[in-house]
Amino acid sequence: MRLLYDYFRSSSAYRVRIALNLKNLTYEKIPVHLLKDGGEQFTLKYKTLNPQALVPTYVEDSIHDKAFTQSLSIIELIEELHPEPALLPKCYAARAWVRSFAQAVACDIQPLNNLRVLKYLTEQFKINEEQKNTWYKHWIAEGFLALETMLNNHHADRGDFCHGNTPTIADVCLIPQVYNAIRYKCDLNAYPNIMKIYTHCESLPAFMEAFPKES
Description:
Largest sheet: 4 strands, mixed
Helix content: 40-55%
Order of helices and strands: EHEHEEHHHHHHH
Distance between the termini: 19 Å
Low-confidence stretches: none
Structural class: alpha+beta
Number of strands: 4
Radius of gyration: 17 Å
Shape: globular
Strand content: 5-15%
Mean pLDDT: 97
C-alpha cells in the first residue's frame, strides 16, 4: 500500500503524482486541504507525520513506520524502490543536469510563489491582488528565462522531453510549474522550448491523470 498525502493544487504533490503514474504504481490519495478550516496541514495529526505542515507526505508499506516528506526526496526514494522505468539517466553527467534543472524549479522558483509565501505577503504586508500577481509573475519570468536557457544549451541532448525521449524528474518538476504559471496568467510566449515540452507531456496519460482536480 502506498499513501500520498496530497493537495490537488500543490505543485509539489503534483510532481509526486506524476512520478508515481510514470512508474505505473497504484496509490491512495489522502486529501490535505491547505485552505479549509484554516488549513488541514496544521492539525496535530498531520504535523505528527510532517512537522513542516507541508504537502506532500508519502508512506509506502514496504518501509514500516516511516513517513517521507519533500517532493524531490520522495521521488528519488520511489526511483530507488522502483527503478523501472527510470526517471534519471544512466550517464552521471546527464543525471547531474536533470537534477539541476529539477532543483531550479523546486528550490528556486516554486518556493517564492507557494501558498504560504503569498499568504504572508497579503496578510503581513497588506499587498493587494495586483501586487501579488506582479510578485508571482516576476519570479516566473526570472526563473523561466533561466530554464529556457538551460534547455537551449542542452539542445544536443534534448528530445521530446527536457532530456532525451523519455521523461525524467526534470519534466516531473517542470510541468506543475508551467500549470501554475498558466493559472496565474503569466505570459509564456518567450519560452518556446518549455511550452513545447509542456504540450507534449500534457498529452501523455501519466501526466494527464496527475492533473490537478479537487477530490
